Description:
The structure is a homodimer.
Chain A: E1 2-3, H1 6-13, E2 22-30, H2 39-48, E3 59-61, E4 72-75, H3 81-84, E5 85-89, H4 96-107, E6 118-124, E7 131-138, H5 144-153, H6 172-188, H7 195-203, H8 206-220, E8 248-256, H9 257-267, H10 271-289, E9 299-305, E10 318-324, H11 332-351, H12 355-371, H13 377-380, E11 387-392, E12 400-401, E13 404-412, E14 421-428, E15 431-439, H14 448-463
Parallel strand pairs in A: 5-6, 9-11, 11-14
Antiparallel strand pairs in A: 1-4, 2-7, 2-13, 3-4, 6-7, 8-15, 9-10, 12-13, 14-15
Helix pairs in contact in A: 1-7, 7-12, 8-12, 9-10, 10-11, 10-14
Amino acid sequence: MSYMPVTDSMFLIAESREHPMHVGGLQLFTPPEGAGPDFAREVVEILRSRHEVSDRFGRRPADPVGIMGNTWWTPVTELDLEYHVRHSALPQPGRIRELFQQVSLWHGTLLDRHRPMWEIQVVEGLGDGRIAIYSKVHHSLVDGVSALRYMTLTMSEDPQDREGRAVWQKGLGRRRRAAAGPKADRSGGRLPFDPVGTVRQIGGLTGEVLGMLPASLKVVGNVLRDHDYMAPFQAPDTIFNVPIGGARRFVAQSYSLDRIDAVRSKADATVNDVVLAMCGGALRAYLLELGALPDKTLTAMVPVSLRKEGDLDSSNSVGAIIATLGTDLADPVDRLEAIHNSVRAARRVMGELSPLQILAMSAANIAGLALSPVPGFVSHTKPPFNLVISNVPGPRAPMFWNGARLDGIYPASIALDGQAMNITISTNYRNLEFGIVACRQSVPHVQRLIHHLEDALTDLEKAFT
Amino acid sequence: MSYMPVTDSMFLIAESREHPMHVGGLQLFTPPEGAGPDFAREVVEILRSRHEVSDRFGRRPADPVGIMGNTWWTPVTELDLEYHVRHSALPQPGRIRELFQQVSLWHGTLLDRHRPMWEIQVVEGLGDGRIAIYSKVHHSLVDGVSALRYMTLTMSEDPQDREGRAVWQKGLGRRRRAAAGPKADRSGGRLPFDPVGTVRQIGGLTGEVLGMLPASLKVVGNVLRDHDYMAPFQAPDTIFNVPIGGARRFVAQSYSLDRIDAVRSKADATVNDVVLAMCGGALRAYLLELGALPDKTLTAMVPVSLRKEGDLDSSNSVGAIIATLGTDLADPVDRLEAIHNSVRAARRVMGELSPLQILAMSAANIAGLALSPVPGFVSHTKPPFNLVISNVPGPRAPMFWNGARLDGIYPASIALDGQAMNITISTNYRNLEFGIVACRQSVPHVQRLIHHLEDALTDLEKAFT
């Protein structure tokens, strides 16, 4: 048995059938040349043969029923890999639509606490011959950023690599350390941030940070008059800021980084600005259609990199800001400008703070998130922001798993009471991969957002040519 | 809103991620002549078009989160039928084995309390071209007997019937009343009993029954010296009588009623005796293989019909008895005899009781079941019996759903703390359909029981020819 810090156990304690506390991801692969119809089964068999499990993926809560509290991890000597690694199929015609329907259902069920809390679904039956892998892992084991990092470590830039690595495999960490140097550095500057993980980080520092809070508020006092700066709890009430049920919808889509980059350079903005402008435009169109667009703009809690030139310690280089999404503005150019100014103002605030003050400031920004599992909190308080839009760094080159080419890697994050929708974006070589998770009950027709995101990008392209 | 009696809400209150309180069933159908590869999709579309929902299947707990207690049902005006009716597929080669793996996973997840608590999976991809339907419904809505009765009402003896009825459909009850006369009568004598449902029945009578308990114990005092009579809490500790996890295994098999009937008539026993002898023989072989067979015989809680000649009120004609399974006896003939005597002794006890006393006696027999959700109860008390073996009456004739022939209808019941395995048998024309649900963690290799049941039946056939 090993001690379970409260920063792990909080995810077990806050969990209910209304908000499972796991993060997920959907990967799409093209089988290698010459692979037969049994390819998915072969993948299942390789994964089920990986019995040597790392400490992290081989532990479970010592008291799964929770009567004695969640204070200890206990190691599991023998994994039931037939349970953890599941072989599934899509009904005909095996479109992406059928895949999303399955992932929506899988993402809404709780993990078993009597064994290590992760599951993999290997999916065959896609009409185009590809296979999909949906993974879910409890947030008490890893956060979203680490989950994707582990996933990336199983893959290789070499299509001939036939190691068939598994996320839970003992020794995978050594691969990470070997690959750490330049790669970790490169991804360090690209929003390696997970908001729920930050709650964890802040939880670990509570005393220290709470002491800093008044100080940091004083520091930022001067900039708060900046009208571009968004403080928390300025968000309007929306359909996203309600108590939620247990069922989910998941949709996802890839957008070419080249297209986004072209807009970015012409508009003199950042990739992050353009991504937020796409989200803002899509959310405006979506809410207009539902007759549910508030007059006041929606805001998003967004992770940003605050790394300064020459600062090699990336652990203090991210912060949580709140940005406008410009949903009150009909013109895409105005919207992008408002977002750009809002993000810049928030960065300016953060830029004048020490790393610990940044953490304190981020804590103030996401405080509402940490409190959302408290019964009644959501119904009786204004939302601190309307949704989380976050970014997890994925592969920087075309990747292969056991010879199969990775075509997409879509994050599926956590919906919470008061935060009925989450948009998480993963980078994957020359694509940005959007994964949207929403409460099935309170957020209707989520799949429309995919089309609205495309329209919003097209509008931006038109405006900047 | 309508009031939710405690006999419904107890199933919501007792539920946890370790023991979901739903009953399930797996049906196998042969598509009608001329059906194409889209048959499963057509079934999904027919079911999803059944928007007119009955009161029972259209209600959900008014306070799904349970903070205010579960005291009210609230009607749901519009069902999200895409959520309730799911279209699934088996991976290749689509054997029954793959089907059981899927059903095991589906049966282990909790139903969403924010909508009516039932789900249907329509499954394609079986290698032999058949389709499967797995249904689950929360025990607060219906018990296992009623669930199967509703299921049977959607079907017809007429292969030309193309009504495509759904279990939740408004007006299905009228069909029941129309069919009530002779059919209900015929099935009345055939163990229409559900042990968890009996807990419900007893819950509704608590005061009255508790008053009777001393009286009935006095009545049975005389027969307790009968050495064939099994009182509760005489069961040995076994691997089935432990706290359980949330994951399940489900296996099922049909056995010809003609084979069982042949043994029955030659042995001068009842069908129920032969079924218990099959279970006893299979459990002995299974536990021997695991090196986990106790010296003392296992006992089962078994529903029996106690209907007397000319008694037309079937509601008081069932009781819960505890029977030996003869797992201490190597010879199948000795085992069947021990079971026969044990059941007869228990029936004799019941036969001398009034209907209310029978209920009280049954309450005493299944008291352990009602207490199993109490934390610590299972770890610190002897099991009242080793497992529940129950029987739900199914169709008496070959049945069809929208032209598809029903080949099998296998019950999937509830595992509880201290009751890690449940065997439920459904009648289906000339077959007995065994459905076994077990805790995946504490009961290994459940599929072996299927073969051991076959062996046990073969042994009985050999012994009685």
